[in-house]
């Protein structure tokens, strides 16, 4: 090894240390300070702690946590709404039964326990099924995790299978308690006398107001029906609203993830890559999980002459634009570990990263950095930092904050002219419209290969698996929540239809057709769908605006405006209509049942 050493690339060593206290960044910094004082001056070139490695490993999963929590909260809230609606409906339709139970000796506490148990029994079966399916669905994910990290067999922690069912049962019990308490407070005589009939006079003003609209009588009757049961209507409205929130949030999330996939790696936008030397020599990341003393960057192996490469690209028909690039390990004042410097030559506008603030490099003396660089160094746009690369130090001014989702070492971007001893080892080429990259690369390769270079046409990246997984999870969770919202509407409409079956029989007896009956039932939820959509869309947009920055912070980056501003006017209009779709789909089944019910059967029903 010593025989290979030179002035520019001396032999260096790597030492691995265990400290007594290394649980936080502050403790590691204090231990590193002691270590630097114990070794000869300038012997410690850099270091990397286990916390840095852990942070890099966590970044792959960290962005998924905020949106999973958002969907989880939506699911729990909707479950509470549906459970409360079901028990409230059971109380409303079983007033006479409650009165009979009290008349034969049931105490208020026993009535409350009976209705809470009525919710807990089916909920227990559903929770058991959910826990089982959750464990089964976790198996593929855990197997992938085993293969990625090379760990032993992974399983769902035993306490999860205990805590989750217990918490779910508690939520069900609390959701059922409020309507159950109402049942316990009912007076025996009142419950027996009222039976299933709604309170006298409730909603008549709505019938008078809606009746003035120029709509068929069956429709106006349906539009006014929800006002007879305000609590049940509120539950249905919340179910539709939260379903719309989930759909709006999911649409925004998938749109933002698609934008991230388009902007996260600008090099992939180039049609052709021309290699002129050995790209990235001495610029690779350090071994994961090890503190290190990095090697100083040595001379790269000699490749093709960049001037000849540029001349070949300029002379090639079909060239639209191109720029040169090289990667080097650099030392930056204020950063304890080596920083990867991406240096550009020529028209680098097509390779520009999406900017969070400031602008892309336009000339010498400028530096563009990611969000986590500003956070770790305490710098901001406009500050000047010293960058040392191959014994050459340049003072560069930070002019922009780039959107960089790389989970490797810090990467900064500067003009190659600031370090005249370096040369580009790769050229990224854009071709003119109508020119096929593969054919262009084949023709250019015939000229470049004799010079010592290589040419390849770029293909679609395979590094978007995480985004595809997140989008698939968002779609799946949204379908589940929308289905729950539809079931909530179904439950409320079934209760309402069965309560009014005698009224429907009277309407049929005086000439209402099955089609008008369907219109009446669907109209009873249409207004709720409109209001739910109008409430859910702004709330979904607000949720998107809150969760996406949290996902970005989990990846140590801010987000550019293009990632957040993904909603278009046509999409918003369709999302507002989603509330009506959820409500109508939930009401179709009871509407069909009401239309098929025989008039005589309906009139005899009490």
Which value, in Å, is the CA radius of gyration? 34 Å
Strand count, sense and barrel status of the largest sheet are: 6 strands, mixed, barrel
Helix/strand/pairing class, anyone? alpha+beta
The main sheet orders its strands as: 2-3-8-5-7-6
| Secondary-structure element pattern, one letter each | HHHHHHHHHHEHEEEEHEEEEHEHHHHHH
What's the pLDDT, averaged over the residues?
82
Q: Give the overall form.
A: elongated
Number of helices: 19
Helix content: 55-70%
Number of strands: 10
Percent strand equals 5-15%
Q: pLDDT under 50 segments (min length 5)?
A: 278-302
Distance between the termini: 96 Å
3D architecture notes:
By secondary structure, the chain is of the alpha+beta class. The chain contains 19 helices and ten strands. The longest helix is centred in the first third of the chain and has 42 residues, at 108-149.
What does the secondary structure layout of this molecule look like, with pairings?
Elements lengths: L24 H14 L11 H9 L5 H30 L1 H9 L4 H42 L10 H26 L2 H7 L9 H7 L6 H8 L5 H34 L8 E4 L30 H10 L3 E14 L6 E8 L8 E4 L7 E5 H7 L6 E6 L2 E11 L8 E5 L10 E6 L5 H12 L5 E4 L7 H35 L1 H9 L4 H41 L6 H4 L4 H28 L2 H6 L2
Parallel strand pairs: 3-8, 5-7
Antiparallel strand pairs: 1-9, 1-10, 2-3, 2-6, 2-9, 4-7, 5-8, 6-7
Helix pairs in contact: 3-5, 3-6, 3-10, 3-14, 3-16, 4-7, 5-6, 8-9, 9-16, 10-14, 10-16, 10-18, 14-18, 16-18
């Amino acid at each position: 090894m010593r025989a290979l050493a030179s002035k520019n690339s001396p032999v260096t060593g790597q030492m691995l240390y265990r400290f007594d206290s290394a649980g936080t960044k502050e403790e590691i910094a204090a231990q590193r300070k002691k270590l630097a004082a114990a070794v000869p001056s300038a012997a410690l070139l850099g270091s990397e702690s286990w916390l840095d490695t852990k942070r890099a490993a966590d970044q792959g999963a960290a962005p998924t946590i905020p949106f999973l929590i958002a969907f989880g909260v939506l699911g729990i809230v909707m479950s509470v709404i549906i459970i409360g609606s079901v028990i409230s409906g059971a109380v409303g339709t079983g007033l006479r039964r409650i009165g009979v139970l009290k008349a034969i000796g049931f105490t208020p506490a026993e009535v409350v326990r009976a209705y809470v148990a009525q919710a807990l029994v089916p909920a227990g079966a559903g929770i058991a099924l959910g826990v089982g399916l959750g464990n089964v669905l976790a198996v593929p994910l855990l197997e992938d995790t085993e293969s990625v990290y090379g760990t032993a067999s992974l399983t769902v922690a035993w306490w999860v299978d205990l805590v989750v069912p217990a918490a779910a049962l508690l939520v069900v019990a609390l959701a059922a308690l409020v309507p159950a308490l109402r049942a316990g407070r009912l007076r025996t005589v009142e419950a027996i006398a009222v039976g299933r009939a709604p309170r006298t006079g409730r909603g008549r003003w709505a019938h008078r107001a809606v009746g003035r609209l120029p709509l068929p009588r069956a429709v106006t009757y349906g539009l006014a029906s929800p006002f007879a049961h305000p609590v049940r209507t509120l539950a249905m409205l919340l179910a539709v609203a939260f379903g719309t929130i989930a759909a709006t949030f999911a649409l925004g999330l998938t749109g933002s993830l698609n934008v991230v996939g388009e902007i996260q790696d600008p090099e992939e936008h180039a049609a052709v890559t021309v290699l002129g030397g050995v790209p990235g020599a001495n610029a690779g990341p350090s071994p994961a999980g090890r503190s290190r003393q990095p090697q100083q960057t040595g001379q790269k192996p000699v490749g093709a002459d960049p001037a000849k490469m540029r001349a070949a690209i300029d002379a090639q028909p079909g060239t639209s634009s191109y720029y040169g690039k090289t990667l080097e390990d650099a030392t930056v004042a204020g950063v304890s570990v080596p920083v990867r410097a991406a240096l550009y030559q020529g028209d680098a506008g097509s390779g520009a990263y999406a900017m969070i603030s400031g602008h892309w490099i336009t000339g010498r003396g400028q530096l563009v950095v990611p969000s986590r660089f500003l956070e770790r160094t305490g710098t901001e746009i406009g500050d000047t930092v010293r960058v040392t690369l191959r014994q050459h130090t340049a003072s560069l001014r930070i002019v922009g904050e780039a959107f960089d989702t790389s989970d490797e070492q810090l990467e900064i971007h500067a003009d190659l002219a600031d370090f005249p001893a370096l040369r580009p080892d790769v050229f990224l080429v854009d071709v003119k419209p109508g020119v096929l990259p593969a054919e262009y690369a084949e023709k250019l390769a015939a000229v470049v290969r004799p010079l010592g270079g290589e040419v390849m046409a770029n293909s679609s990246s395979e590094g978007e698996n995480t985004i595809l997984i997140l989008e698939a999870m968002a779609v799946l969770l949204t379908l589940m929540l929308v289905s729950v919202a539809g079931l909530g509407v179904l439950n409320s409409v079934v209760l309402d239809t069965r309560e009014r079956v005698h009224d429907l029989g009277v309407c049929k007896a005086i000439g209402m057709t099955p089609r008008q009956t369907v219109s009446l039932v669907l109209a009873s939820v249409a207004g709720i769908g409109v209001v739910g959509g109008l409430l859910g869309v702004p709330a979904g947009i607000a949720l998107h605006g809150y969760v996406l920055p949290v996902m970005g912070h989990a990846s140590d980056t801010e987000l550019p405006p293009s990632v957040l501003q993904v909603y278009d006017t046509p999409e918003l209009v369709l999302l507002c209509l989603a509330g009506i779709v959820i409500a109508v789909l939930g009401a179709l089944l009871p509407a069909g049942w009401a239309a098929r019910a025989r008039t005589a059967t309906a009139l005899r029903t009490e």
